[in-house]
Design a protein that fits this description.
- The structure is a single chain.
- The chain has about 220 residues and is mainly beta.
- The chain contains two helices and eleven strands, in the order βββββββαββββα.
- The strands form three sheets. The chain has a seven-stranded antiparallel sheet, with helices on both faces. It has a two-stranded antiparallel sheet with strand order 1-2.
């Protein structure tokens, strides 16, 4: 996710949001059958996916990696996911608001966010929830001058109902961002890189996210 985008920079005026998920003409709605988190809990010798070498940012080179080739990262307020072992903590001026890890070359970026109700300013007709946060983020991406394709859809993420945004940018990067509610909080998880990196890493993000710092998908 573009590291310049904390939620605090997203317009909070309802007039700018629009109902991105459910009506409107500037989106492609698709139902996505996401793998369940149970797949990640299998033995590491069986849990494999096609994933790229993280340094091959502009290459189509990919390799098979297993859950054993990943590490679990995150924070209590944003949740935890499994990512390639060679990724490193990414620090920016927004690090207190969101958690980020990047590939060693900083080309690929993972961003995790958590939103409590008392931290989100609500308009008079707004209700806190995943839909609200997703609409605001969707509106932000609509107005990003570098985006060339924006799709919004409903999916399943970590066994929760979620909104998924897929964004393509003029520099060739792609972004997958999920927004979902678990308990009293809304969370978002985003992966940004070239398509050959984002696509194969998607199952790891979808299946391994959870609130347990040690157990994928829990």
């Amino acid at each position: 996710m573009k590291n310049k985008i904390p939620l605090s920079t997203v317009p909070f005026l309802s007039a700018l949001m629009g109902a991105a998920f459910g009506k409107g003409e500037n989106k492609t709605v698709e139902e996505i059958a996401a793998p369940t988190a149970e797949a990640v809990k299998e033995t590491t010798t069986k849990s494999t996916t096609t994933a790229p070498t993280s340094t091959a940012s502009t290459s189509s080179e990919m390799k098979e990696i297993s859950l054993a080739d990943t590490k679990r990262v995150g924070r209590e307020d944003t949740g935890y996911v499994n990512i390639p072992k060679d990724w490193v903590l990414y620090e920016s001026k927004y690090s207190n608001q969101q958690f980020q890890y990047s590939s060693p070359d900083k080309y690929s970026l993972l961003t995790l966010n958590g939103y409590a109700k008392d931290t989100v300013e609500l308009g008079p007709d707004e209700t806190f929830g995943a839909r609200l946060i997703a609409d605001r983020l969707y509106s932000y991406w609509q107005n990003d001058k570098n985006q060339t394709i924006l799709q919004g859809s409903k999916t399943i993420f970590a066994l929760e109902s979620a909104f998924l945004m897929k964004v393509a940018f003029s520099d060739g990067k792609h972004l997958f961002q999920w927004v979902f509610q678990k308990g009293d909080k809304v969370y978002s998880a985003a992966i940004e890189s070239s398509a050959n990196i984002v696509t194969p890493l998607r199952p790891f993000i979808e299946q391994s996210w959870g609130l347990d710092p040690n157990t994928p998908g829990k």
